[in-house]
């Protein structure tokens, strides 16, 4: 009989790359119709669970009078949502905008959000598992380093991804030894198996109204002492999920006062159906924070916030900027859901300007 021995090693990767699974006929959990040029894919993770991805490739037939970008030089953009959202929140405005600007765009629904499968348990995952799922998608589907864009808690997941790149010595591998005892000798055969998805380098990262590296506990305490009424409203809206039934509270939490109620009502319904499980166990999450610091990262980071953000305050925005050694950009006249708000073009334009400089 052959004996099996398993040893951890740091040999070069030997990886099998399955393709993403194409859209399968299924009843949608979230009533969002794709826009022209968008495709819904299902990327199969190593666990066997499927992760929804809304894809929109760059538009090449632009106005001939406008200077044409070399789309082959543009990095792909991968968008990661926050709590109570899913891939649709990017597909509404920003995917069409950035694809028209020459970028291939991919919006991910994290597990148990949107149309993605749900894992066993009571929460969708952790910083580590969500970042690992994003890394798996990037490794198996993208040919060049992407720019990751994350909103709110999605920004915190991207911060962990960046830290994983900066602190990762090499991916873990498993050395499988197969021993065949023979009459006069022992034959040993080895097989190297990749046991961890490598966190590939990024072309850049954009943190949009992101939870800061220390988590949301600092935000909560500041609100309690400086704005107790706002603290009560945020807690009621998010922790108690009152935004799902209270239209005015939903509007105050996520959007500007200029947003029409009918549009807020539509997004409220989409958010209500987007999250079948909490993204995290917040107690365990806070115990694991702050995210590890990154020694002089070569990754360019844009920290962008909203002047009228009801959730992430100015100090939270500045904390994230200090962490990465950059000056944050604060967009006027826009609220927390920058990609859905009535003036969504303002945030998109600021990011596009940064992306153009990134390519130069």
Q: Poorly predicted ranges (pLDDT <50, ≥5 residues)?
A: 1-24, 61-71, 169-176, 191-195
CATH fold name of the domain at 38-57 and 73-168 and 198-217 and 275-359, please? Rossmann fold
Helix fraction by DSSP (H/I, runs of at least 4)? 25-40%
Structural shape: globular
3D structure, described in words:
This protein has a domain at 38-57 and 73-168 and 198-217 and 275-359: 3-Layer(aba) Sandwich (Rossmann fold). It starts with a strand and ends with a helix. It has helices spanning 88-91, 94-100, 127-141, 153-167, 217-226, 228-239, 247-254, 261-274, 282-287, 314-324, 344-359; strands at 3-9, 38-44, 50-56, 77-80, 105-108, 147-151, 173-181, 186-194, 204-208, 301-306, 329-331. The protein is built from eleven helices and eleven strands. With 360 residues, it is α/β, with parallel strands linked by helices. An eight-stranded mixed β-sheet has the order 2-3-5-4-6-9-10-11, with helices on both faces. Strands 1-7-8 form a three-stranded antiparallel β-sheet, with no helix packed on it.
């Amino acid at each position: 009989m052959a004996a099996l021995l398993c040893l951890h090693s740091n040999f070069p990767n030997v990886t099998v790359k399955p393709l993403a699974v194409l859209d399968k006929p299924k009843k949608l959990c979230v009533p969002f119709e794709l826009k022209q040029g968008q495709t819904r894919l299902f990327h199969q993770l190593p666990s066997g669970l499927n992760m929804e991805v809304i894809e929109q490739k760059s538009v090449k037939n632009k106005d001939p009078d406008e200077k044409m970008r070399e789309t082959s030089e543009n990095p792909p953009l991968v968008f990661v949502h926050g709590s109570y959202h899913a891939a649709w929140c990017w597909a509404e405005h920003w995917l069409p905008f950035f694809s028209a600007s020459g970028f291939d765009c991919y919006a991910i629904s994290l597990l148990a959000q949107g149309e993605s499968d749900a894992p066993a348990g009571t929460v969708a995952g952790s910083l580590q598992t969500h970042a690992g799922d994003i890394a798996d998608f990037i490794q198996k589907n993208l040919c060049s380093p992407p720019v990751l864009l994350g909103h709110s808690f999605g920004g915190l997941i991207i911060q962990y991804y960046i830290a994983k790149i900066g602190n990762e010595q090499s991916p873990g591998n498993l050395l499988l030894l197969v021993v065949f005892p023979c009459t006069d000798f022992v034959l040993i055969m080895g097989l190297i198996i990749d046991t961890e998805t490598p966190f590939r380098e990024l072309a850049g990262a954009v943190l949009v109204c992101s939870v800061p590296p220390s988590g949301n506990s600092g935000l909560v305490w500041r609100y309690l002492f400086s704005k107790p009424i706002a603290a009560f409203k945020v807690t009621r809206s998010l922790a108690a999920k009152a935004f799902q039934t209270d239209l005015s509270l939903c509007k105050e939490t996520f959007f500007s006062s200029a947003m029409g109620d009918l549009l807020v009502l539509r997004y409220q319904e989409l958010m209500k159906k987007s999250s079948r499980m909490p993204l995290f166990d917040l107690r365990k999450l806070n115990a694991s924070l702050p995210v590890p610091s990154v020694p002089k990262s070569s990754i360019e980071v844009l920290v962008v916030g909203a002047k009228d953000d009801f959730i992430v305050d100015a100090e939270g925005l500045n904390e994230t900027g200090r962490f990465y050694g950059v000056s944050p950009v604060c967009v006027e006249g826009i609220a927390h859901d920058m990609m859905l708000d009535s003036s969504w073009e303002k945030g998109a334009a600021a990011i596009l300007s940064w992306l153009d400089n990134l390519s130069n």
